[in-house]
Amino acid sequence: MATEDYRDTRLPAAERAALLLREMTVTEKCHQLVSVMPWTLVRADGSDTAETEHWLSHPPGHVAQLIVDTPDTLAHLVGSMQRQAVERTRLGIPILFHQEALSGLLAGGHMSFPTGTGLAATWSPDLVQEMTELIRRQMIRAGMRHALSPVMDVALDPRWGRVHETYGEDPYLAAALSVAFTRGLQGDDLRQGVIATGKHFLGYALPIGGVNTSAFEAGARWTRDVFAYPFEAAVQLAGLRSVMNSYSDVDGVPAGVSKEVLTDLLRGVLGFDGFVSSDYTTLEQVVDRQRVAADVGEAACLAIAAGLDTEFPKPYAYGQVLAAEVEQGRADIRDIDTSVLRVLKAKFDLGLFEQPYPAERIDVAAVAGEGAELSRDLAGRAVVLAKNDGVLPLTPGAPKIAVIGPHADAAKLQFATYTYASWREATDSVMNGALGNMLGTDDVTTPWYEALLSPVDPDQLVRERFGTRSIAGELADRAAEVRTEHGSTLTRSLGDDAVERAVRIAREADVVVLALGGGSLWFTGERTEGEASDTADIALPAAQTALAEAVAATGKPIVAVLVQGRAYALPEAVRNAAAIVVAPYGGPFGAKAISDVLFGTVNPSGKLPYSVPRHSGQLPLYHHQKAGSGYRNPLPPSVPTHYLDLEATPLYPFAHGLSYTEFDLGDGAADATIDTEGTARISATVTNTGAVTGATVVQLYVRVNTKGLTRPAQQLAGFCRVELAPGESRRVTFHLAAAQLGYTNLARDFAVEPARVDYFLGLDSDDRRVEGSFEMTGKPRALRSSERAFLSEAEINHV
């Protein structure tokens, strides 16, 4: 009989979890590690299903994929299932509901924000933390305390369709934003917080051939020093409480069943002490795709021994199967106990046993407007001015504009996967019989969604729910005249007549806005990016290229607007445009942000979070290539280019981004010497030398000249966003700890060692206008993860 000592709130969470574990049967333990779909527990009105009593006899620990149309319905259903778990099961263990939160809480009636690379383009960790502080409050209100976000993958290959979910190619930038995201979501006290989940551990964004879920092949040093960096930073600086495994193999072993990855590296080296959330259908793939387990029972034994604490989104190898493996002596109960303790401790830390229920009343209209101003600010900061021959900014009220291309009047294309708008489009497609299964939801019950959702045109949904307008619609408010033609879809020609109509309105316009780029959807529909939506060639699709060439032949001034979540190789007709603007999938205010920049209402300050290659053949291309590799490789004598047919440098480097004003950076200074336990001060003065107020991002890059190992030719080591009025100056000083300059050395220890450190300060990764070096002296210093420094401090002072 249960003693209920675990309900004593005076005891620490770990002790309460241990007391509760003693009361549990093997079957109850194994089911605490699984999630189920909500429609297995409740009908759409919150009443019991035919399966409810079955599940309450061995209650699940988690619920997955509860996405509905309004916040009050969401809270009602969460409350219904939570009452089942708390009031109708033997031990009354509350459920942990998880949901995506990459670009806002993935549920109807909540604000949406730019996609990952859009957030990264702002270089604004403070605003990202503000965003997740809002998401935290919204999730707590709805009773959902576990977010499957953020994506901490370092994305080096733009062929991979999920780049837009990430923070781009640089591990330092990804770490800074991952830490901010985690801090905002989890808060200072988890009793008022939501568990964040760093994903996908490890190397998921560099799959072979750019093909999603393919193997990750890298040495141990590169894996630790580059790909683990954002995760380790979030663990050490923000107390990250959950990590999701990658689908990929790591050194030949699927990450979900790799003890080397999930226990030795993640816990033993990086210091993680939370629980591992399995990516959806991980163990099915271990059996059917990667084929490293003969059957489901063997997969369960491999995973639990490796340290995979949970199985999402529904039981396959855990639950009853895992319990049977324990009874047969093939799985070690100590491994199950370890994982269950981690999950239970998280629930006690969250205060779920004391307050498991969502808010009783929710003001739906008020919730819908929360975060609107922040979403608008993020979208505005994310727009990158890549090129400007003087055509921008446009003069309000003056020009006749032809807006041409697939993004001209498609408001829905501002929303990427992991937004509610994109999820609705995919779900409606499944309900209508379209192909595509959305991993983990292939058993969607039609009655469930028919009762909760009415199919809606996706463009109509974003216009009505968020007030989202198209690029053409936003420009029409400011131009003398706006005319629109698609000319092509994202990937298909609409025929010669459509192109000719586009050419005709271009000839009659003062300026042409070519609204081109990509589209991100979930598994189905016309798209160029998204999950399981990879491309062998990252060139702008042929239909858009042909359209651009036809319009360029008119000789009219062209402003190319590229809405995209990852880099595209651009055709000559686009490269030669008078201006090029790169915008992310910006969400509700994405098109407005573009219009604001084109007309100068907002002075652009976005910086690219990825390098833009000239051609797909350069991939992977990233600024921190090792010295002597890629375009960081010195040319042999008398050889003009690395390739016979092309330059190896990017078309636009990482962190590139122009402004309508000019900035000068000079008067650099740095400490001459520090020891391996010290901190270097590196400073310069930034001045707005132009005629309008603007913001820029001052960036610090370093090169540690190590012995015996090739290291990156340069590493981002700090940045800060500075806003200045015309003629105004600020002194920016970076405090760079020696412990931030560690690496895996020849002895395979992670250490900081004496070396000359070269540095430069600039406004992008190729801007070396302030350069210098300092000596790092003293004894080599091995560093545990807790002793590392991950992010430098930036101090901004008046001059």
Plain-language structure description:
By secondary structure, the protein is α/β, with parallel strands linked by helices. Helix content is 30%, strand content 17%. The protein is built from 24 helices and 27 strands. The strands form 7 sheets. A 6-stranded mixed β-sheet has the order 10-15-14-13-11-12, sandwiched between helices. Strands 17-25-24-19-20 form a 5-stranded mixed β-sheet. It has a 4-stranded parallel β-sheet with strand order 1-2-3-4, with no helix packed on it. The N and C termini lie far apart (71 Å). About 1% of the residues have low confidence.
Approximate helicity band: 25-40%
Q: What Rg is obtained from the alpha carbons, in whole angstroms?
A: 26 Å
Class based on secondary structure composition and strand pairing: alpha/beta
Instruction: Give the neighbour order of strands across the main sheet.
Output: 10-15-14-13-11-12
SS elements, strand count: 27
Largest sheet: 6 strands, mixed
Strand content: 15-25%
Number of contiguous helices = 24
Task: Give a short overview.
This protein has 799 residues and is α/β, with parallel strands linked by helices.
Could you give the topology of this structure?
Blueprint: H1 13-22, H2 26-31, E1 35-36, H3 52-56, E2 62-63, H4 71-87, E3 96-99, H5 116-122, H6 125-142, E4 146-147, H7 171-186, E5 197-201, H8 220-227, H9 229-238, E6 242-245, E7 249-250, E8 253-254, H10 259-269, E9 275-277, H11 282-288, H12 296-306, H13 320-327, H14 333-350, H15 364-369, H16 372-382, E10 384-388, E11 400-404, H17 420-431, H18 446-452, H19 458-466, H20 471-476, E12 481-485, H21 496-507, E13 511-517, H22 542-552, E14 558-563, H23 572-575, E15 579-583, H24 590-598, E16 663-670, E17 673-675, E18 679-688, E19 694-704, E20 715-724, E21 729-737, E22 743-744, E23 750-752, E24 755-762, E25 770-777, E26 781-782, E27 793-798
Helix pairs in contact: 1-14, 5-16, 6-7, 7-9, 11-12, 12-13, 16-24
